[in-house]
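User: Can you predict the 3D structure of UTP--glucose-1-phosphate uridylyltransferase? Sequence below.
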Amino acid sequence: MKIRKALIPAAGFGTRFLPATKSQPKEMLSVVDKPLIQYGVEEAVQSGIENIGIVISRGKSSIEDYFDRSPELEQFLEEKGKTDLLEQVRGIAGLAEFCYIRQKKALGLGHAILMGESYIGQEPFAVLLPDDIFDCPTPCTKQLIDAYSELGASIIVLGRVDEEGTKKYGIVKPKQISERVFQIEDMIEKPGPERAFSDLGILGRYVFHPDIFEAIKKTGPDKGGEIQITDAIKILLETKPVYGYLFEGKRYDAGDKLGFLEASIDLALKRPEFGQKLREYLKSHS
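Assistant: Sure. Here are the predicted structure tokens for UTP--glucose-1-phosphate uridylyltransferase:
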């Protein structure tokens, strides 16, 4: 079954980027010249997804405005003859069909995904966390979708992490099936190096069979009162196989200040209009 829909959870407060996120969503912070969330949207579209549900909360209306038409701006650009910018602005609204789903209270990633149940219906879907920017030869979500087509079961993106990463990400207990595919036997959220099953962390991209919704409903809140998607996947594992896919490419944790800076620099260096000048600037200040 073709995967047509994706969910992008974007309802959090973005506290790691305060004070910048006091009055604007973290997802709208600019990486080079595009807001963070646009990288995830473009990845989904390049992976063949046509419909994107964005889970938002109070104060996130600028996300809705960004992916809508802007007649006044378009008219201004047209009158000034700025055709290249006009095409870019018009293209944003045409990337996909967008739906906005309100999460009234931030109760964890599992709860945010559950908010999209009526939008998704009974079909497989992707989840993309906007904090993560993937720079891959084949879009990361497309890699997952291709693996899902072969396996027919929920599958998540895995990446190698260091000891510090075991404190930041969910870690899986893997059974290797092929070079990049692992069957997941267990997982634990942010265990630290002493309790980690492996060095394979869960890195912000998922393709779920719709039975994940029932698993989330059975998932109790953690000590912080949040419903974790890792706990829901563990419940799903009791009755269904779940796989992990070791993606090919590079990933930036742009929800972290250092990762955000690394993404901004690396992606800017790839831009033909100013990449070489930036490279020379960096060399002169090294």
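The domain at 5-284 is CATH 3.90.550.10 (Spore Coat Polysaccharide Biosynthesis Protein SpsA; Chain A). The chain is about 35% helix and 25% strand.
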